[in-house]
Structures are given as C-alpha cells and as structure tokens.
Amino acid sequence: MTFSIQLNSRAYTVDVDGDTPLLWVIRDVLGMTGTKFGCGQALCGACTVHVDGVATRSCVTTIDSIGESQITTIEALDTLTHGKALQEAWIELDVPQCGYCQSGQLMSAAALLTDTPKPTDDDIDAAMSGNVCRCGTYQRIRAAIKLASA
Fold first, then answer.
1. More confident residue, 8 or 138
2. How many degrees, rounded to 5, is the angle at CA 54 between CA 119 and CA 102?
3. How far is CA 142 from CA 19, 66, 72, 73, 75, in A?
4. What are the residues facing 62 on neighbouring strands?
5. Superfamily of the domain at 2-76
6. What is the residue range of the signal peptide feature (predicted)?
C-alpha cells in the first residue's frame, strides 16, 4: 500500500504494508538511521520519535496508524523548542557513553521539556522511566535535562 507521511517537516510517500512498524519505514525505507532498534516491544525506548509532539515508540507504531500526524526524529531534534539546548547539555556533561540509547533519550527529554519546561526530579524520572540506558549514565541524563531547562 502507499502511505503519505509528514516526517521532519517533509512529505514522503512510501510503499509498504500497513502493519509495517514506523521504525522500519524511517530506517529501511527512508534511510534515516538515527532512530535505533532496541527490543521491538516498546520496552527500552531506543526507537522513540515524536508523533504530533508526543514521545512514541516507533517499533510498535504501525505506519497505517500515522494518518496526517507529524513525525519528528532525532535528525530534526535541533528544530524542536528545547532540542538545541538538549544537544548542548548532552555534550557539555559528556552524557553519551556507548551512544545506543541516546536518540531515544533525547527525544523523550525533548517531549518532557515541551510539556514541562521546568521539570522536577520526579517529572524527569516519570518521563524517562521507559528509556533504558545500558551504560548507567542516568544521573548525567537528569543533569543535562535540568541544564537544558535552565
């Protein structure tokens, strides 16, 4: 089937089955590899993108459920309200270790700051709880979110 989607403020037409996960459309069909595959069950958060500004697990979101929604991936993070500040804070605080979870972490953090510009530790914990970091840099992630919100 043919689907028209809005991704990073551009229109794309893709020819895939309706039950194809958005993740595979982004990575395999459109060639944007910043969004990562982690678990395939929406448990780790590596595949997080924004669908109409909401942090969404793209590994379990089918292309036929997208409709007219605007999708934003890590490739367009700097266009989001707090995206550039998050990128700068991430670098300043040396957050990335292995880097695998970083795109999902950043996309979840950007959605948090859009909804809650001055988050508390509890806000951060709640928003980031679905993102797994194998390297254990969570304290740096929390500090980066606070720095970006300052």
1. 8
2. 70
3. 35, 31, 22, 21, 22
4. 21
5. Beta-grasp domain (3.10.20.30)
6. none
Structure tokens at 97: 């270790």
Position 25, amino acid: V
Tokens of 12: 């794309």
In three-state secondary structure terms, 128 is: helix
Q: What is the pLDDT of residue 138?
A: 77
Q: Where are the beta strands (DSSP E) in the chain?
A: 2-7, 10-15, 48-51, 54-57, 70-72
Residues 25-82: pLDDT tens digits? 999 999 999 999 999 999 999 999 999 999 999 999 999 999 999 999 999 999 999 9
**DSSP H or E segment with residue 145:** helix 138-149
Q: Domain residue spans in the chain? A: 2-76, 77-149
Residue spans of alpha helices (H) in 1-137: 22-24, 83-92, 102-115, 121-128
Query: Looking at domain 77-149, which CATH architecture does it have?
Result: Orthogonal Bundle (1.10)
